[in-house]
Inverse folding.
């Protein structure tokens, strides 16, 4: 029997979690700015390519060996597809039809559905009643946001929302793939290898779809692209893996609830975006689903009843 206590969030981890949420929340805002001049797939290409030098520098400065095994690089290629190339592209395409705030809310289903995917595919993370209830609430929250009519009509806006949900599913599959194949490798190398794999995939796809990237862009768009690459990708993944080690995956899941307020706030302040009451109500249902999936709130309530 394993009596090792579950990881907790200390002050340092909490601060890093807030910074990570701000960086990922800002991604939706800066992507909205970049979409004025750059197609979605090319934004994904910029995001992964400009992040590579930063992560390579970190790996070299730390003296982390770069793997030579073709099998490991195949693992990185698949991880890059599931965790970067596919979800980034789906989210950026989705933002051509829906607001950055709504995209961030729909992306919030990642942790809820991720628990179910892990429960199905990982023997050490069994699917429990609590996880099923949490996922069910997540689905209900999504339906509240999109609406039953939109689901039957499949207009561009509802397709865009479904695309963002597809990105959430891809992230969920990526977490399982990473746990199965990349455990034991340094976090910094995993981030570098993953983004290298996604860059290899995105070069031909983006050029085939959008043509060669145009470099004569406005200052605002270049600032947005560099921020998304350097801060929301390279720095964010370094924080991500650091929090994972310090606080554990369950605590890291909480970042999903912190991202939408940043994205919605930036979209409202600088882009004039408005979020309807359905989106807020749906976000509330998704948040409850995540808290039930996480389980700690239920344990606190149970302990409170026992001591009262």
């Amino acid at each position: 029997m394993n009596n090792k206590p579950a990881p907790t969030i200390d002050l340092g981890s909490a601060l890093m979690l807030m910074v990570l949420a701000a960086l990922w929340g800002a991604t939706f805002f800066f992507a909205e700015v970049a979409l004025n001049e750059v197609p979605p797939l090319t934004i994904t290409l910029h995001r992964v390519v400009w992040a590579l030098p930063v992560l390579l520098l970190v790996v070299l400065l730390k003296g982390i060996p770069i793997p030579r095994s073709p099998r490991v690089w195949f693992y990185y290629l698949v991880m890059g597809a599931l965790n970067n190339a596919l979800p980034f592209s789906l989210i950026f395409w989705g933002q051509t039809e829906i607001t950055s705030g709504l995209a961030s809310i729909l992306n919030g289903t990642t942790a809820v559905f991720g628990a179910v995917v892990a429960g199905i595919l990982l023997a050490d993370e069994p699917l429990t009643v609590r996880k099923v209830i949490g996922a069910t609430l997540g689905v209900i929250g999504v339906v509240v946001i999109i609406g039953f009519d939109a689901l039957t009509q499949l207009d561009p806006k509802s397709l865009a929302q479904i695309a963002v949900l597809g990105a959430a599913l891809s992230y969920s599959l990526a977490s399982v793939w990473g746990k199965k194949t990349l455990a034991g490798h340094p976090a910094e190398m995993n981030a570098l290898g993953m983004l290298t794999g996604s860059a290899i995939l995105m070069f031909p796809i983006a050029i085939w779809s959008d043509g060669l990237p145009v470099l004569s862009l406005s200052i605002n768009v270049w600032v947005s692209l560099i921020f998304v690459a350097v801060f929301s990708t390279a720095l964010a993944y370094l924080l991500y893996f650091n929090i994972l080690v310090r606080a554990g995956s369950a605590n890291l899941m909480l970042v999903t609830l912190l991202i939408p307020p940043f994205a919605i706030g930036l979209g409202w302040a600088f882009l004039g975006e408005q979020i309807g009451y359905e989106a807020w109500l749906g976000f509330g249902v998704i948040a409850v689903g995540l808290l039930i999936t996480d389980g700690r709130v239920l344990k606190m309530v149970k302990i409170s009843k026992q001591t009262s």
